[in-house]
Amino acid sequence: MSSSKNGVHVLIFPFPAQGHILPLLDFTHQLLLHGFKITILVTPKNLPILDPLLSTHPSVQTLVFPFPGHPSLPAGVENVKDVGNSGNAPIIAGLSKLRGPILEWFKAQSNPPVAIVYDFFLGWTQDLAQELGVPGIVFYTSGGLLVFILSEIWRNFGAYRDLSLIEFNGLPKSPRFVREHMPSVFQKYKEGDPTWEIVRNGFIANDKSFGSVFNTFEALESEYLGFLKKEMGHERVYSIGPINLVGGPGRIVKSNVDVGVNERIFTWLDECDDGSVLYVAFGSQKLLTKAQMESLTIGLEKSGVRFILVAKQLTAQQLEEGYGSVPEGFEDRVSGRGLVIKGWAPQVEILGHRAIGGFLSHCGWNSVLEAIVAGVQILGWPMEADQFINAWLLVENMKTSVRVCEGADSVPDPIELGRRISYAMGNDLFKEMAKKLRDEALEAVKIGGSSRRALDGIVRELSQLQS
């Protein structure tokens, strides 16, 4: 196995959103285990997210720059979790103002980094790396299919701009999407707007990177990864996922979790039959409207299936804005068959319990990988961002999942939702395929597996760089 004998120095630049920063920290942990010297660039409010990594690897240097801000962001916001998906573009544009300070910092170092590994939302960093004369390596927290689609639409924007149905006939299985199901960055893009031009140019710049690292694995996306290698014209396309399986202490443990609640969850699960429980959760950012929550709870009630529902604690303002909490009386009506968790839940641990047989999810990439690792089928309700593409990969391409609803504003028919939940949870074929995919993911990260070989490949490539 390759390692950096002489502490080759690498700068890591994560994008401040939970689904982005944690996988990149897991990859950073791997680089540290291989002897690299690491500096991580963050803004002050994102520094605590590094705590688990810093306590495991005290040698890590942090490079902390004040967040330059953006006119459309509330004062003090430095992470997408504080503003939701709409904060991506202004945070990308705000961080791009750090280009000058980063250049100055580099020039002042006696042992500057010999490569920059950056999140794919920060594509402007690629031009900075070129100016510095060091390789820029892009870290994709997502799958290969999404990346190919983003690259294609940004490079040929004019051809896709006005289409209501977008087809990718050159790709294996010819994915097709209605416009509303394309990635949010494409739908929200405003031509000529300075903020959005930074976003678009960044995605295009990613194609020029020295290498690309993906949080995916061959058995899941070999067709699309092969396609990307052809498009990029080199072999430095590394799929090292699921990185949370290979990873390490990149995860922050919630210190404010009620131990009693945790105990109640697992005591309840221990009493359930294998594969009988549906876990229902929609990620860290998404809130359901009152109508959606009512429909979901009625659907769960009608399904006859055992379930755990994670519902966020809403503020008075969110309730006023029309978001929904669990309806009055629901918990009593499903007592014994359903469990409602208000607030944060230990998702990975719940998915890993033998009683869980399905995950009703928004199909965010991290949730998709967590379900795959647990061998649990997904019941998809994609809403925004990359979620429709991820759902297509699982439902139409892999045939390992079922779609129960789609759209951020859709209110499913509760009777139909209950029927679909009941059908999916009783479908042994879906459960078998989910377990097969889990076995392939576990195989990929073993020594000699495809992800482990790819990780060794990127380590070897980086360790050959000289300052």
TrEMBL record:
Its EC number is 2.4.1.-. GO terms for molecular function: UDP-glucosyltransferase activity. SUPFAM superfamilies: UDP-Glycosyltransferase/glycogen phosphorylase (SSF53756). Keywords: Glycosyltransferase, Transferase. Transmembrane segments: none annotated. InterPro entries: UDP_glucos_trans (IPR002213), UDP_glycos_trans_CS (IPR035595). PROSITE patterns: UDPGT. It is an enzyme of class 2 (transferase). CDD domains: GT1_Gtf-like. Belongs to the UDP-glycosyltransferase family. This is Glycosyltransferase. It comes from Nicotiana tabacum (Common tobacco). The gene is LOC107783549.
